[in-house]
Structure formats: C-alpha cells, structure tokens
Amino acid sequence: MVFISVDNETGEGTEIEMLLENFVKLNSFLKSFSTPVMKRDLSFILSKHSEGTHFSGLSEPGRQYAFYVHHSETDKPANTYIVAPGSYEENYIFNIPPGNYTAQWIDPASGMVKKTGKFNHKGGNLTLKTPIYTIDIALKLKSSAR
After folding, report:
1. pLDDT tens figures, 7-32
2. Number of C-alpha atoms within 13 angstroms, CB side, residue 31?
3. How many CB atoms lie within 10 A of CB 63?
4. Rounded to whole angstroms, how far apart are CA atoms 16 and 100?
5. From CA 58, how far away is CA 44, in angstroms rounded?
6. Given its phi and psi angles, is residue 29 left (phi above 0), alpha (psi -120 to 50 degrees) or beta?
7. Which of 39, 43, 23 is nearest to 109 (CA)?
C-alpha cells in the first residue's frame, strides 16, 4: 500500500482516500447514537464467536445498542486481520429488556441500511437475522421509549 509520502503529502489518489471515506461513514453511524452514555458491552450478546468471526458492542442498556461483526483471520505474528470475504447470513442472539425497538442492519462500507424492522420485544432472548453481507455488518438497535 502506498499512503502519504514526501512527494504526495495529501495522500490524494492513494488508498488513504478510501480509508478516510470509511471513517466518515463510521462517524455517521456512531453519531446516530447518544454515544456519551454508551459503554463497551458484550454482555447483551449471547451468541458465541465462531472461528473467523469477530464482534463487538456498545450499549446504553434498555435504550440503544450497537453491534458490529466482521469475518477475518488473525495473523498473530503481524498482529493484523486478514479479511475473509464470503456470503454471510447469520442469526445472532441478544439479551434485551422488554420494549418497542427498531433494528437497522447497516453496511459499514457504504453506510447504507440493508434491512430495517420494528417490533415489540417481551424481554430476554432476541434472535435477529442479518441480511446477506460479504465482510462485515453493523446493527443499530434502539428503543422507541425515551
């Protein structure tokens, strides 16, 4: 990869432009939450990691949840991820309090919403199915009670 150099201080025309576009989309996703009250939280995620699947979460319990999953292999010596593109469609189980929720599955690369659903949850285990995706996907789950 060629990034910024003495001859090209702005990084224009390099892979850095694509990376910056992804950061803009990630920033937009995070701004759709009230992030100051959210904390890193894996306790609401009941699904287990399978090999090559990595996920993370943020929450303000009972109000808003962010879930992210990507598929890759870990290159331990280099301490990097090697992306594993495929055709993925999974069910994830979450432990969520009762309430009315809106769920949006978002493609992180484009920022586009791939699937939306509204539902009343009685509390406890909630199974949500992802749309088909190739590398990663993000879930925005928000309670309509404010």
Report:
1. 555 556 555 565 566 667 776 777 77
2. 7
3. 19
4. 41
5. 9
6. alpha
7. 23
| Residue 132, token pair as written in the block | 């088909």
Which amino acid is residue 31, in one-letter code? K
Give the distance, in angstroms, between the CA of residue 28 and the centroid of all CA atoms in the same chain: 12
pLDDT tier at 4 (50, 70, 90 boundaries)? very low
Q: Are 107 and 114 in contact (CB under 8 A)?
A: yes
Of the candidates 110, 97, 93, 106, the residue with the CA atom closest to the CA atom of residue 139:
106
Query: DSSP states of 43-104 as a string?
Result: TTB-SPP-TTEEEEEEEETTTEEEEEEEEEEEETTTTEEEE----B--EEEEEE-SEEEEEE
Any idea which residue has 């285990």 for tokens? 125
Domains of the chain, with CATH numbers?
Answer: 1-31 (no CATH), 37-143 (2.60.40)
**What residues pair up with 57 in beta bridges, in sequence order?**
67
Please report the pLDDT score of residue 87 as a whole number: 95
| pTM for the model | 0.80
Under 8 Å between Cβ of 134 and 89:
no
The torsion angles phi and psi of 55, rounded to 5 degrees, stand at -140, 165
